[in-house]
Amino acid sequence: MKKTGAIIILVGLLLTIFTTVSYFTREDVVKIGDLKITANKPHNFSWSPFIGIAVMAVGGVFVWRGYKK
Prior knowledge:
Layout: H1 2-17, E1 20-32, E2 35-46, H2 49-68
Antiparallel strand pairs: 1-2
Helix pairs in contact: 1-2
């Protein structure tokens, strides 16, 4: 239980520090016969840092419950 709680706390810390993930997809811009021109389109996935804090709180409960047994 304690190890699981520590891992959850670490994940929550990472979610708090890094609040955005960027990734790219490749799209066809022009396609005429064998000629194909592509472009990379950026996408961002963002979340609130409060989600990371909540995850750390859940990890803290796991650690606390591990010491109670």
